[in-house]
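My current task is to audit a protein record that another person submitted. Alongside the sequence sits a line of tokens, each denoting a local backbone shape. Where you disagree with what is written, explain briefly why. This is what I was given:
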Amino acid sequence: MNTAQAANAEPARIGTARGGPTVLRILLGAQLRRLRKEHGITPEKAGSAIRASHAKISRLELGRVSFKERDIADLLTLYGMTDPADRAPLLSLAREANTPGWWHKYGDVLPSWFEVYIGLEEAASVIRSYELQFVPGLLQTPDYARAVILLGNPNASDAELDKRISLRMRRQERITGPDAAKLWAVVDEAALRRPMGGEKAMRGQIEHLIEMTGHPNVTLQVVPFERGGHSAAGGPFTILRFEARELPDVVYLEQLTSALYLDKPEDTEAYMQVMNTLCVEARPAFRTKAFLEKLLAEIR
């Protein structure tokens, strides 16, 4: 199969990937990078072809910006793909990549750096997370989520709070809806004992966690106090894994006003090692329900 044939075959399979525009941009960007390298074209030359800098080529190939169909057409010409039949699938994919995801309607409360994460979360087949301070967002109840959101947005109006909570609840469909992802969460005991939103909210939250432990795609482990220090002392993180082989694992690290997305193998493998160690240090998953029931009795 030649370069044009390979490029033509790929979009037919990846166009059905979950994750909306975020994943489609990443997949199309990877295809463009492959074509550019196969033809020995530098990012500077590619940038010149679309009247842009080499930095924009980098952002396009990483899927970090939206695509202009004209730019994609010019790049395909530069890369020697001139047959309309070969170009059509990639140009179609570029148009699809600019279609807003379901989270677009939350744009007024959704930071751009977090929008990327939602698209990746939507596409992930396996989500592994470690939380030190709070219950993972995908397992929060509305009352608990309200208390957490208020910490970071103390001046938010009731309407804004409701919309932020609605976004968080909508995200949870990724683990409760059709074709649900696997969630494996490791939570520090401190997060479960921190009284967010008062006793009623915490009772409801613990009851919800007990219910979620019964879902076959959800694994929840707790790192007990008596464990002392542990391998993830640096802070919370999430590892996203995808079915599409074109997508590498991504480690998500949230900061106060931004986030880091790590996808280099040396980074993701280091975090995967830490996650695996945490799973050994934490109580076994089969003991989680009993621990939560004991904790619930203490709250009452």
